[in-house]
Amino acid sequence: MISVVIADDQTMVRQSFRAVLDAQHDIRVVGEAADGNTAVALCTELEPDVVLMDVRMPELDGLEATRRIVAGLPEVRVLILTTFDIDEYVFGGLRAGASGFLLKDSPLDDLVTAVRVVSAGNALFAPTITRRLIGEFTRTHASAHTGHSLVAELTARETEVLRLIARGLSNVEIAEALVIAEQTAKSHVSRVFTKLGVRDRAQAVMVAYEAGLVVPGNTP
Q1: Domain HTH luxR-type: where (predicted)?
Q2: What pairs with residue 189 in β-bridges?
Q3: How far, rounded to the nearest angstrom, does the alpha carbon of residue 74 sit from its chain's CA centroid?
Q4: Does residue 217 fall inside a structural domain?
């Protein structure tokens, strides 16, 4: 059973998300928060698998709440709720330790899928949207190629694997692209994470963009 905390200052959003998630056989909403401080307190008490985190909340915003939750509870996965057209905090959310994000106007079925995917440790659901968003925020907000020194530690094959991760490929798709066994691809991904000092695909993608391995707007 996947336990979820919903943090959003809009009651109707929380109720809507809760109704959809509680209707699933493998997901249970264990708490709701209308502000960042309450979200941090609930997560500390309940240790949920996934937190749906709105960015703009009173008292403590979603980015700082995410940072505190991830720092104290590294096993908790945070899924940032955002609106692409106006939200300037996506990249900051990933830097704070979020495992991915969900557009607020996405179909509710996508919400269910996102919770399952993130809870399994597979960050960045909907990779085509992810590439566009991260590409935009990297281009306008990221520091100048801070990922270069980290990427320099990778072998040629590991660098290739990182590029494929940044393009949104799963382990199975990486194996197919490189014509290797899925277990071998999984091992490469694990070594990439270890060398980069990242915990999941979300953070690995940031490093790839910052190092210039993937050019925003130029991925297949």
Answers
A1: 147-212
A2: none
A3: 13
A4: no
Task: Record the pTM.
Answer: 0.71
Q: Give the burial class of 26: count Cβ atoms within 10 A of its Cβ; 0-12 exposed, 13-18 middle, 19 or more buried.
A: exposed
- 61 with 170, same domain: the answer is no
CA distance 165 to 134: 13
Residue 102 inside a domain? The answer is yes
Instruction: State how many domains the chain has.
Output: 2
Chain segment 137-190, per-residue pLDDT in tens: 556 555 545 556 778 889 999 999 999 988 878 889 999 999 999 999 999 999
